[in-house]
Amino acid sequence: MLGTVERVNETARGALIVFEGGDGAGKSTQVQAVARALEFQGRTVKRTREPGGTPLAESVRGLVLDPAHAPVDADTEALLFASARADHVNRFIRPAIERGEVVISDRFVDSSVAYQGAARGLGLEHVQELNEWALRGLTPDLTVLLDVDTSVAESRRTDRGLAADRMEGEDRDFHTVVNQAFRDLAAAAPERYLVLAADQPIEVVTDKILDRLAEVLS
Question: Residue 137 annotated as binding?
Answer without folding.
Answer: no
